[in-house]
Design brief:
It is a single chain. It contains 16 helices and 19 strands. It has 467 residues and is α/β, with parallel strands linked by helices. It has 3 domains: 153 residues, Aconitase, domain 3 (2-Layer Sandwich); 96 residues, Aconitase, Domain 2; 178 residues, Aconitase, domain 3 (2-Layer Sandwich), CATH 3.30.499. Strands 5-4-3-6-7 form a 5-stranded parallel β-sheet, with helices on both faces. A hairpin with a 5-residue loop joins strand 1 and strand 2. Helix 2 packs across helix 5.
């Protein structure tokens, strides 16, 4: 078993006790909730006559169901409005901090917690959302949980979990121009598989991650779950502290210096023991595009769709299903694939730096005829900052729609959906069948820069070739 890693240290510090089942009862420092998985959990508490144990450790926002065009209340979708009202009622009744639409701080849950300084090194973080692993970018241990576990955290501030093994994933060297954090994580998942991380926490290390900004690290940790890992993290460093300093919930004054000293002590030891170590060379990573129906079915933009002979026998059945669903032929180039919809946003790539980089490529170009392209900021703060920099004007001048914050087409629990068998270039995190709102809709995952390249050419294009 691992020893001396940040994961081991944080796990041990938050252990309440080891249960007869062998699981650990783990204290949860920060609990994040939204409108989709919390109503049932609050109802379970009411049925049992229970109270929220530590309401000050829970923070709520609304993101999945909010429309990104017209956010006037009541929402046009009665179910979305009902979820919204339920969250408003539950947070008020339990004195839980709630960042509602129009508060100036609403947005995707995994965007707003970091920008508020709520997510900090050494924390345990839980949320009823798969991509809670995002918060591991700060040196936290962050888990996505189910509705019954949301209930458990509300009632006891603890979770029963089996301790994970730890795999160290090292990426070293400089990324090529046009290659981003999204390409790095898609490359890792491609190589290790969507089930490769089952039973593991992933520690992302090496010079490539050390050079990344916090927002880039969040992109990588966000998709740890897509590689099968329960959580992913990066050891805290000066990049982390510079990001957190002066944010609303970050320590202040003397407490700040003490916090840094403690955070430093949590870093994995130089002689830490890992259950597994995997290394990659950054120079080997190209702009990456998914061609299939899992995030692991990815290829470099210059590569052809793999043929069955190119993959292990146990992957060929899923590949056959993917060929048919995606309407692609084995061996055909992915470059040149026609695109109908282009989406920039989500908890993976909806932060300010994502929009800044995308705008660089959008400037001076026009969205191709017949392509619907839109940009959805990850939070009200991101939207405000982007507009202050004039990014919205760059996008709209290029023919992109500029929307209000929300999860949008990442999972399409709102009006933003694919229609029929449309194919989208998406900066989100999942390309499952029907993920973006149509049972026959098709999704190609890629970086925001690559989405822009697809939008202005009308087809999958290597962003490095965009003039």
């Amino acid at each position: 078993m691992s020893k001396g890693t940040l994961f081991d240290k944080v796990w041990d510090l938050h252990t309440v006790k080891v249960l007869p089942s062998g699981q650990t009862q783990l204290f949860i420092g920060l609990h994040l909730i939204h409108e989709v998985t919390s109503p049932q959990a609050f109802a379970m508490l009411r049925d049992r006559g229970l109270q929220v144990m530590y309401p000050e450790r829970t923070v709520a926002t609304v993101d999945h169901i909010v429309p990104t065009e017209n956010q006037a209340r009541p929402f046009a979708d009665p179910l979305a409005e009902a979820m919204m009202q339920e969250l408003e009622k539950n947070t008020a009744a339990n004195k839980i901090r709630f960042y509602n639409v129009g508060s100036g701080n609403q947005g995707i849950v995994h965007v707003i917690a970091p920008e508020q300084g709520l997510t900090q090194p050494g924390m345990t973080v839980a949320c009823g959302d798969s991509h809670t692993s995002t918060h591991g970018a700060f040196g936290a241990i962050a888990f996505g949980i189910g509705t019954s576990q949301v209930r458990d955290v509300l009632a006891s501030q603890t979770l029963a979990l089996a301790k994970l093994k730890v795999r160290k994933i090292e990426v070293n060297g400089d990324l090529q121009p046009g290659v981003y954090a999204k390409d790095v994580i898609l490359h890792i998942i491609r190589k290790l598989g969507v089930k490769g991380g089952v039973g593991y926490a992933y520690e992302y290390a090496g010079s490539t991650f050390e050079k990344m900004s916090m927002e880039e690290r969040m992109t990588v940790c966000n998709m740890a779950i897509e590689g099968g890992a329960r959580c992913g993290y990066v050891n805290p460093d000066q990049v982390t502290y510079d990001y957190l300093k002066d944010r609303p919930f970050a320590p202040k004054g003397e407490a700040w210096e003490k916090a840094i000293a403690w955070w430093e002590s949590l870093r994995s030891e130089p002689d830490a023991e890992y259950d597994d170590v995997v290394t990659f060379n950054a120079a080997d990573i190209a702009p990456t595009v998914t061609w299939g129906i899992t995030p692991g079915q990815g290829i470099g933009v210059d590569e052809p769709v793999p043929t069955p002979e190119m993959m292990p026998a146990d992957e060929q059945v899923l590949a056959a299903e993917a060929y048919q669903y995606m309407q692609l032929q084995p061996g055909q180039p992915i470059k040149g694939t026609k695109i109908d919809v282009c989406f920039i946003g989500s908890c993976t790539n909806g932060r300010l730096s994502d929009l800044q980089e995308a705008a660089k490529y959008a400037k001076g170009h026009k969205v191709a005829p017949g392509v619907k392209a839109f940009v959805v900021p990850g939070s009200e703060q991101v939207k405000k900052q982007a507009e202050a920099e004039g990014l919205d004007k760059i996008f709209t001048a290029a023919g992109f729609e500029w929307r209000e914050p929300g999860c949008s087409m990442c999972l399409a629990m709102n009006p933003d959906k694919l229609e029929g068998d449309q194919i989208s270039a998406s900066s989100s995190n999942r390309n499952f069948k029907g993920r973006q709102g149509s049972s026959t809709g098709r999704t190609l995952l890629m970086s925001p820069a690559m989405v822009v390249a697809a939008a202005v050419t009308g087809q999958v294009t290597d962003v490095r070739e965009l003039s």
